Amino acid sequence: xxxxxxxxxxxxxxxxAVATLLFATLFASKAAAGPIDTYTFPDEVMxxxxxxxxxxxRCPKCQNxxxxxSNSPIAQDLRHEVYEMLLDGRSDTEIMDFMVDRYGxxxxxxxxxxxxxxxxxxxxxxxxxxxxFVVFLFVRKKEVKTAALSDDQQQQLNSILKDD
Amino acid sequence: xxVIIRLIPLIxxxxxxxxxxRGLSLNPQDMPSALVGKQFPAFTLPNLQNKEQQLSVDDFGxxxxxxxxxxTWCPSCKVEHxxxxxxxxxxxxxxxxxxxxxxxxxxxxxxxxxRDPYVFTIFDQQGSLGLDLGVFGAPETFVVDHHNVIxxxxxxxxxxxxxxxxxxxxxxxxxDEIANGQ
Lengths: 164, 182
Fold this sequence. Notes:
heterodimer; A: 164 residues; mainly alpha; 6 helices; flat; B: 182 residues; alpha/beta; Glutaredoxin; 5-stranded mixed beta sheet; two-stranded antiparallel sheet; 7 strands
């Protein structure tokens, strides 16, 4: 075996190791993401709807997690309930309404637009408008001032310009 | 004018401070129930003590009702149990139990060991009535009025202070309503 061959096989081993590690982390992160349920869906669309709904609905007990993320018993129950209702042929809106009727508006991570949530939805826009208006006021004030040069300053300027 | 403009950041800071300080003392678990003001949900579930008997809303008494959600897997339920036994002597309301996602044998053992304060206990092994009530843990206690309308939901351990502050006034109110024929 000459040197070239040795370095080639070293590189091969190294590449194989990197590939194994990459795959291992890929699968590990997939396995670690969220609780494991064994729901089987009749079609891909229902699976996506399930994922979307459990992502949008909040766990009532563990308040900073959605149903998809949480391992608490109530989240498991509610996931099962969502699954059953999907199989039952209910629409997404019906499922959302079902949850709101029992657990309140609180379970929606994306609050509905109504008189209670106007401030929440449109507050930021209003604040940006106010901010923009204030900036506009300040900028406009400064524009007006144009300083005139005194005679001395004008002479100085002329002499500087002449030098060049 | 200039002074006012310079004070704006300070005022905003103070307002924000007040807002955040208030947030510190709020209890995030203290959520209004979506069911307050609604009818108690319909159910058909077995009696814990009598497998054969199916219970429904119609089995509740006519007056004021307290429905207490409990389970043997819930340590806080054990804490509040002696207080429930005391409450069961009050004749102004009936206390009912809702055994939530539990097993029958340990639940019966529990009632035998710690005394049974309930008129009857609904055995909700699957948690179906619990779901309809928006229960997300135990213990929880509901106040149901003479029209079977839910008037209050309380999540947590029932004890004397909470009882006097939050439950007694409500029970007085409902008693007044009954007396006025509402």
